[in-house]
Write a structure and sequence with these properties.
single chain; alpha/beta; Rossmann fold; 7-stranded mixed sheet; globular
Length: 272
C-alpha cells in the first residue's frame, strides 16, 4: 500500500476515511441496486469476487449469497464494521479488509470478477484505480461497476456542493470529478484496450421520501461534503438558506410519488 510520503493524496484519503463513516444509513437505498449490479456482472457460485470500495458490504453480501467467494475492501473502518455485521446477519463468510482502491493488497489475477458500486469513482486517480482493478482480475474475468452520469442529479450534486466548498489543496483540485465515471465515453477511454465486450445498462435507484425537504435533511446528515458546507455556513444564515433552497429545487426535479428517482449506469467488460 502506498505510504504517506509517496502518495500526494494521503491527507485527502485520511479525511475520506473519516468522512465516509456518515454514509452507513444510506445502505438501505443502495441494497436493491447492489442486486442489479451483481446480476449484471453475472456473478456465479464458486467465483472469486472482489468488491472494491465496498462500503457497508451490500454488493459483497449479495454476491456471497449467490455462492461466490467474496473479498471486500474499503478505506473506512466504520463502514467495514457495518459490512462485517451485515455479513454475519446474512450468514455469509466474506474477507473484509481496510485498504485503498489505488493500492489493492491482492496478487495479480486473484479474482474472476471485480465489482464496485459508486465506490471506486472517488479514488482521486482514475488511471491508478483502473490499473489496480484490472491487475487483480484474471484474464477473461469481468469488471463491472455502477456510476452516476454527470448530467443527472447525483452527478450534478458533486458540482453543486463543490461551488460552496473552499478551494481544495492543489493536488486534490487536480483530481477529476467522480461524475466523469458516469460518461460512457470516459469509461471507454479509461478501460482502454485492456478489455473487450464493454456493455452498458441504465437503471434507477428509488429513495422513499416524504418531501424534498425530508431528503435534504437526510442528505445533510450523511453526505460528508454537504455536512462540511452546512457547518461552514452556520454563521451566514442567508447563504445557508440559499444553499438549501437551491438544493431542494434540484431534488424536486427528481421527486415523484414520494420518492427520489436516481438514474445510474452500469458498465461491464471482459479483461483481455
Amino acid at each position: 500500500m502506498t505510504t504517506a510520503n509517496a502518495d500526494p493524496y494521503a491527507k485527502f484519503k485520511a479525511a475520506q476515511r473519516e468522512a465516509w463513516a456518515l454514509f452507513a444509513p444510506m445502505e438501505t437505498f443502495t441494497t436493491m441496486p447492489a442486486a442489479k449490479l451483481v446480476k449484471f456482472a453475472q456473478v456465479a457460485p464458486g467465483q472469486r469476487v472482489l468488491d472494491a470500495a465496498c462500503g457497508t458490504g451490500v454488493v459483497a453480501v449479495t454476491a456471497a449469497r449467490r455462492g461466490a467467494k467474496v473479498s471486500g475492501l474499503d478505506l473506512s473502518p466504520a463502514l467495514l464494521e457495518r459490512a462485517r455485521r451485515n455479513a454475519t446477519v446474512a450468514a455469509v463468510d466474506i474477507d473484509f479488509v481496510e485498504g485503498d482502491a489505488e493500492a489493492l493488497p491482492y496478487p495479480d489475477a486473484s479474482f474472476d470478477v471485480v465489482l464496485s458500486q459508486y465506490g471506486h469513482i472517488f479514488a482521486p486517480r482514475p488511471a491508478v484505480a483502473v490499473q489496480e482493478m484490472l491487475r487483480v482480475l484474471k484474464a477473461g474475468g469481468r469488471i463491472a461497476f455502477s456510476t452516476w452520469p454527470p448530467e443527472l442529479f447525483m452527478g450534478r450534486q458533486f458540482t453543486f456542493i463543490a461551488r460552496y466548498l473552499p478551494p481544495p489543496p492543489s493536488a486534490v483540485a487536480a483530481a477529476p470529478s467522480p461524475a466523469l465515471w458516469g460518461d460512457p465515453d470516459v469509461i471507454r477511454e479509461r478501460l482502454g484496450e485492456s478489455v473487450t465486450d464493454l456493455l452498458f445498462e441504465r437503471d434507477t435507484m428509488i429513495m422513499p421520501s416524504l418531501s424534498p425537504q425530508h431528503t435534504r435533511i437526510a442528505q445533510e446528515a450523511t453526505i460528508a461534503a454537504l455536512v462540511k458546507v452546512v457547518d461552514s455556513l452556520k454563521n451566514d444564515p442567508a447563504k445557508l438558506a440559499q444553499l438549501r433552497a437551491e438544493y431542494e429545487a434540484m431534488i424536486s426535479e427528481v421527486f415523484e410519488d414520494n420518492a427520489i428517482h436516481l438514474h445510474f449506469i452500469m458498465a461491464r467488460a471482459v479483461k483481455l
